[in-house]
Amino acid sequence: CETCSKEAAKYRCPRCMKYSCSLLCVKKHKLALSCNGVRDKTAFVSVNEFTDLNLLSDYRFLEDVGRTADAAARHCIVHSPATKRLLYCLRNKARGCNIELKTLPVGFTKRRENSTTFNSMENKFYWHLKLIFPHCHAEYTLKGVPDDKTLADILKPYIDPLESDPVVCQRLKIYTASPQSDVRILMKIENRNRNSVRYNELDASRSLLDNLKGKVIIEYPTLFVVLKTLKNDMVVLGQDGSEPAENSDSESSSLSSVEEGEIRDSS
């Protein structure tokens, strides 16, 4: 058992492949790793390990996608004039701020979750925002975040040792114990091939709106908070949009390779 390290393992989690000996250990591992226990149907499988079961699983997954897309296309809200006007307004206002905002059809998780609004009186976006802390396997959803708020202020309730909630502080201990200079805020670059995932590094001292300008957003921004001193698998493009050098060290603009698992469902 990878949870208690005392008893012989009887179960294996379909999601993260962790071994457990009992229901109690299964619940503990789900809580510790924020694991839902549901098998990832889109997990990468190498050609050497690909079997008939994987082929059947992929076929059923594509059938499910087809049914979901068909049901979404038939949904009455899709054809609602009020919904179309609201989405058009959001996209148009975002375009005026040099942000390419894309929305998904009804039925997609991110479309259902999105609570982003635009206040015409204040001429300001109030964003739906997701924060992901990969080193602690934690993520948080924020609603109604004003676009003039700096990223540093947005992160304070999570990684500031004095202002963060005690429960959150304990869960994100590795972040709160690190100096603020080690914190990097990354956002995935959309419209790239799956085998070429790249990230932009954002400026914590600037507002959310300034950081989103010139970028493509699908429904709402998702920010990854990482530490320079810890290895992760995200490749960060340089300030000029160029690919990072292969031999750069851990404190340069690039990190080692690519990983795209955290928000697979929502994209």
From TrEMBL:
Alphabetized Pfam families for the sequence: BCD1
Region (Disordered): 238-267
InterPro entries xref list: BCD1 (IPR051639), BCD1_alpha/beta (IPR057721), Znf_HIT (IPR007529)
Keywords: Isopeptide bond, Metal-binding, Phosphoprotein, Ribosome biogenesis, Ubl conjugation, Zinc, Zinc-finger
Low complexity bias (residue ranges): 242-258
Protein origin, superkingdom: Eukaryota
An example Gene Ontology molecular-function term: zinc ion binding
SUPFAM superfamilies found in the cross-reference section: HIT/MYND zinc finger-like
Signal peptide: none
UniProt record, GO biological process: box C/D snoRNP assembly; maturation of LSU-rRNA from tricistronic rRNA transcript (SSU-rRNA, 5.8S rRNA, LSU-rRNA); snoRNA localization
One GO cellular component, as annotated: nucleus
Location of the HIT-type domain: 1-35
Function summary: Required for box C/D snoRNAs accumulation involved in snoRNA processing, snoRNA transport to the nucleolus and ribosome biogenesis.
Similarity comment: Belongs to the BCD1 family.
Subunit and partners: Interacts with FBL, SNU13, NOP58, NUFIP1, RUVBL1, RUVBL2 and TAF9. Interacts (via HIT-type zinc finger) with the RUVBL1/RUVBL2 complex in the presence of ADP.
Protein name, per record: Box C/D snoRNA protein 1
Species for this entry: Orthonyx spaldingii (Chowchilla)
